Each structure stands twice: as structure tokens, then as C-alpha cells.
Amino acid sequence: MPINVSLVSADAEIWSGEASLVVAKTVLGEIGFMSGHEPVLAILAEGQVRITQTSGEKIIANAEDGFLSMEGDELSIVAGNASLVN
Hints:
Layout: E1 3-8, E2 13-26, E3 29-33, E4 40-44, E5 47-53, E6 58-71, E7 74-84
Parallel strand pairs: 1-7
Antiparallel strand pairs: 1-2, 2-3, 2-5, 4-6, 5-6, 6-7
């Protein structure tokens, strides 16, 4: 079952869609999210957000200064600055 991901910066939506896995860097270290993950609210650290879409295609974004929230199968990543790498 996929998770619904929304990655936004202060001024634009960077990426949204369904993913099977998302790995992001928080101030406490990297954390991976899959369907069924427990609820999380964490501070985003400067680094990459790696998204594996349900098709297997990978999306990489640089993000910093924000937070992420996982509730149910909804992952929201809100960054002060974010941009796609590929």
C-alpha cells in the first residue's frame, strides 16, 4: 500500500504523489517511511529527501529548515528551502 507524499518549500510545491519508501534527514538522523509507519513529527535537517515511487522511479530533493509529519499513510514535508536534484 503506498503512502501519499507532499514535499513543499516556502514558495512552491516541489513534488507530490504516491511512494513506497521515503527517506529524509532529521536533526536526530535519517528516518525511513513506508505504509503503516507510526505517527511522527520531526524537525527537518539539511540534506536529501529520497523518494521511491510505486513504479520504482527515484526522486531526490535537497531540503532544509522545516519539519515533516507522518499521520496514517500521509507524509508531509515542509521545508524553508527545497529543490529537486533530478
